[in-house]
Specification:
about 15% strand; single chain; 10 strands; alpha/beta
Length: about 220
């Protein structure tokens, strides 16, 4: 996973285009073009669930205030590079479309970590569209366990959603942590996907009923 940090997207400007393209595609294409395929057993690529909102974003391209279309389109292109290389070289590949992660306290992009930080330090936090969006949150330790399975065993090549398959209403998370009303910055009419939950049917075919960490337990342990 060699990609431009998501939390920097909002401030992306022309002086950063070269870095963005280099981290998003250039380095990946350089690696693949110089890789000796005979030495490769399989490739696991970390993609993003943001790809699922790409078609919807294109319809409302004028609303791309936070460069989400740019991010998603480059991520999708990176997926296609991986698939093209692996199919032509007959190498197993796993495109992992990662949903919302938590478990890294230093992650500036993770809503869960920002929620915990706001609660512990009495900070202000933005809430889009009154928190009616539904999101799938997966702990990083679960992600690493899943990757280990795919490293050690042979599964069908293809695209896999990496999430719990369960959704959480954003406003319920704010209520669960009892975020003070005066600390909530409300932003309405923000163009965002309403429901984003991993389809783990392909994952279950490989791993069975994988037991994911419970988000509520994590939140309680942190606060």
């Amino acid at each position: 996973n060699n990609f431009y940090p998501s939390f920097k997207l909002n401030d992306l400007n022309s002086s950063q285009y070269e870095e963005f393209v280099e981290l998003s595609l250039s380095k990946l294409s350089l690696i693949l073009s110089q890789l000796e395929s005979k030495n490769v057993n399989k490739i696991i690529y970390t993609s993003s669930s943001s790809i699922y909102n790409l078609n919807n974003n294109i319809k409302f391209i004028q609303d791309d205030k936070f460069n989400r279309i740019v991010y998603s389109s480059f991520k999708f292109s990176a997926e296609k590079l991986i698939q093209n290389y692996c199919k032509s070289k007959k190498i197993d590949f796993y495109i992992m479309r990662l949903f919302n992660t938590y478990g890294d306290e230093s992650d500036k992009f993770s809503l869960i970590e920002r929620l915990v930080n706001a609660k512990k330090n009495n900070l202000k936090l933005k809430l889009n569209n009154n928190g009616i969006a539904i999101r799938d949150f997966v702990h990083l330790s679960d992600v690493s366990k899943i990757y280990k399975f795919f490293l050690n065993k042979k599964y069908p090549s293809g695209v896999y959603d990496i999430g719990t398959g369960k959704g959480h209403l954003i406003k319920n998370l704010f209520n669960f942590l009892d975020i003070k009303n005066q600390n909530i910055i409300r932003r309405n009419n923000v163009n965002e996907i309403t429901k984003s939950i991993a389809d783990i049917s392909n994952l279950n075919k490989c791993l069975g009923n994988f037991k994911f960490k419970a988000l509520d337990r994590y939140l309680k342990s942190r606060i």
